[in-house]
Amino acid sequence: MRKLKKAALALIATTALAASALPAAAEDIFVPLFTYRTGPFAGSGTYIANGMHDYLEMLNQRDGGIGGVKIAIEECETGYNTTKGLECYEAVKPKHPVLVNPWSTGITLPIIPKAAVDKIPVLSMAYGLSASSEGDTFPWIFNPPDTYWDGMSMIIKYIAAQEGGLAKLKGKKIGYLYLDAGYGKEPLPFLADLSKELGFETKLYPVAAAEMQNQSAQWLNVRRDRPDYMIMYGWGAMQPTAVKEAVKTNYPMEKFISIWWPSEEDAKGAGKEAAGFKTLNWHAATPDFPVIKDIEKHVVGAGKSQTPKDQLGTVLYNRGVYNSMLIAEGIRTAQKLTGKKVVTGEDVRRGMESLNIDAARLKELGMDGFAGPIKLSCADHNGHRPTFVQRFDGAKYVKVSDWIEPMHDKVGPLLKADAKAYAEKNAGWPKRTEACDSK
Amino acid sequence: MFYREVGQFKTSYAADQAIFPIRQDRIGLALILAVAFIGIPLVGGEFMIASVMIPFLVLALAAIGLNILIGYTGLISLGTGAFMGVGAYACYKLSTLFPQVNIIVWIIASGLVSCAVGVLFGLPSLRIKGFYLAIATLAAQFFLQWCFVRVGWLYNNNPSGAIEVPLHTLFGIPITGATAKPLTRYYVVLTIVVVMTWFASNLVHGRIGRNWMAVRDMDIAAQLMGIRLLPAKLLAFAVSSFYAGVAGALMVFLWLGAAEPEAFNINESFVLLFMVIIGGLGSLIGAFFGAALIHILPIIVRTAPDALGLSIGSATAEHLTYIITGGLILFFLIVEPHGLARLWQIAKQKLRVWPFPY
């Protein structure tokens, strides 16, 4: 009985403590990282989580933070689950985060309307709601460097380049294998427009989220239709399955192009035959950069992270690093704009809008050639940067194309219309009142 | 000593048939309500309200719905998640088609839509029983989820494929959308849940509930006693889906704020089933216990190491949460296979004879 009493008391004590969540020290900049190292998507999430954490930790170790202010990093495990992600959001909110990265479209969508109310900017890097690139409607949301529509336009352009021009696409058959959720369906109207305009035929192969690991039906249809090219918008277990099925179907891997999410592991599962598989990317996939060397020296080598050494420089690890670089640069720009050392969410929102990472700045960061320059503005929260195509050679990805510009003239109006529709559907959507720093 | 009915005399049939015949029980209930309406808003932070209490109440409401079907009528359903989805999508459609109407009206109305769909999928229940019925409801789960993904009309052809919740007000105070304060949302959810629980309690203790329980215990016997099986079973499906639908609408409009079809997948149905089984079949308070164990316990486990000053990785904490929660579920089921509600009953019984047990 006494034991039971003790246990009960301990339980009450812990809940009481938990309820009064400890705020981060006031002199730190609090950056929560929503990560998923568990659950069905952990295979991709762990790399990203490691990359994000290690870059910020490296800044803490090497430079003592940003502008002399330490970054308080806190991971919150979402398991890629929307309700848990929202729980994370509510849990970090009282600690005044300067920015959140939901790392899941499902978590991003409910947070979007909250951002303006809670004054916490959201960085959904190349995922989330495409239309949130329109800063006039979504002043608090940032989704650089590309939207999924940009991605689709670049894949089509790449295919056209292989065939010798956009005009040559006429009469071709292009298959689109996609996750049957918001993310995969988003490019559909755009693809339909393009196919009408350029005269190619599209074949759609939706994969339901519950059926990600069983795509035999879709690939049977691919075998029957024999599309000239295959485009994939997948995530998690859908990607390795698709690569495996493509190999099994004897689909020419050189003509199988994916959006930017597959990792090395996704392709490796299918063995040597997966060589030739292509994906879009906007940053390097090797560890040969000063910034990665610094991470190795100050963080991984010093035992301050969970990252195994051979993970450095992989596609998704580097993407995590790039994501954190954007956060850090946003904070730095905010410090420069406001003259304050300890910035708030409102400051970082201004910082992100004035973000301008040119080649010289990239070199300073030790990222010369790691990624292209990027500049955001009040109207454009995305940048719509060019990407390149990388080819899987059986072990790693190798860049095989030049930088490809998205079809700005086609994507721009779509985004504008979509942002407008969003604001209309969500009656009472606030008009932008935030002042603009960059003209 | 404190908890016994000595000296409480009942002078009317109504008093004798009361759900809470002992005065202490009624005081206890009033206390719980006072804590819920006054205590928690006073001491609870925003996290407590928004991420602990609101989800707990919503899940408890859905669990009550499922409990009516499984616990009271003995019909196994694996489609609760989808019926919640029906409620959510119906509420979204209705509120976007007729934005002038108060959202509370639409939340209740969406329960009726879910109710109609539930009756439709409940039709086979007359002929098939047990696990076979579970499979039939599984079909409902998959079919409805397919609709949420594929029928663009349901989500107004949003390019994101998700349903988003705009601002709605009640008496001029925002209750949905980003500007709604967690406390306001909590009060709305709490009021709806309390009213619907009271309604369910009256339902299961009355003629209809007795019909259901007779069907559960032996449907042939029930039929011989003059209970018409089809209406009884369909009514159970209808009421259960109504509760699930309202819970789904509350989930999207007052808890999440936006949802993808994935929110209503088969996992959701299973989680609710676990809540009902662990909480206690055929017990309303069991639904609350189950929801608390499945939703609140992991949050406590997750935040405990931090609060105690232990620093463990977020992923490790997550794994630990799974292990501890799973362990506790096993423990409770071994100690009392009839669920937490039965434990509660035993505790009350013991308390009644304390300190002189016989």
What do you see in this structure?
- The complex is a heterodimer of chains A (439) and B (358).
- Chain A has 439 residues and is of the alpha/beta class.
- Chain A has helices at residues 2-19, 42-63, 82-92, 105-118, 148-163, 182-185, 188-198, 216-225, 238-248, 264-268, 290-300, 315-338, 345-353, 359-364, 408-425, and strands spanning 29-35, 71-77, 122-123, 141-142, 173-179, 201-207, 229-233, 256-258, 278-281, 356-357, 374-375, 388-392, 397-399.
- A seven-stranded mixed β-sheet of chain A has the order 6-5-7-8-9-12-13, sandwiched between helices. In chain A, strands 1-2 form a two-stranded parallel ribbon. In chain A, strands 3-4 form a two-stranded parallel sheet.
- In chain A, helix 2 packs across helix 11 (290-300).
- Chain A is globular and about 60 Å long.
- Mean pLDDT of chain A is 88; it is low at 13-24.
- Chain B is mainly alpha-helical and 358 residues long.
- Chain B has helices spanning 13-16, 23-43, 46-72, 80-97, 103-122, 130-150, 182-205, 207-217, 219-224, 229-256, 266-279, 284-307, 314-335, 340-353; strands at residues 163-164, 168-170, 173-176, 258-259.
- The model of chain B has no long low-confidence stretch (mean pLDDT 88).
- At the A-B interface, helix 1, strand 2, helix 3, helix 4 and helix 6 of A face helix 3, helix 6, strand 4, helix 12 and helix 13 of B.
CATH class of the largest domain in chain A: Alpha Beta
Q: Helical element count of chain B?
A: 14
Report the portion of residues of chain A in β strands.
Answer: 5-15%
The first-level CATH class name of chain B: Mainly Alpha
Structure annotation, total helices of chain A: 15
Cα(first) to Cα(last) distance of chain A is: 70 Å
Quaternary structure = heterodimer
Order of strands, main sheet of chain A, comes to: 6-5-7-8-9-12-13
Query: If you consult CATH, what is the topology of chain B?
Result: ABC transporter involved in vitamin B12 uptake, BtuC
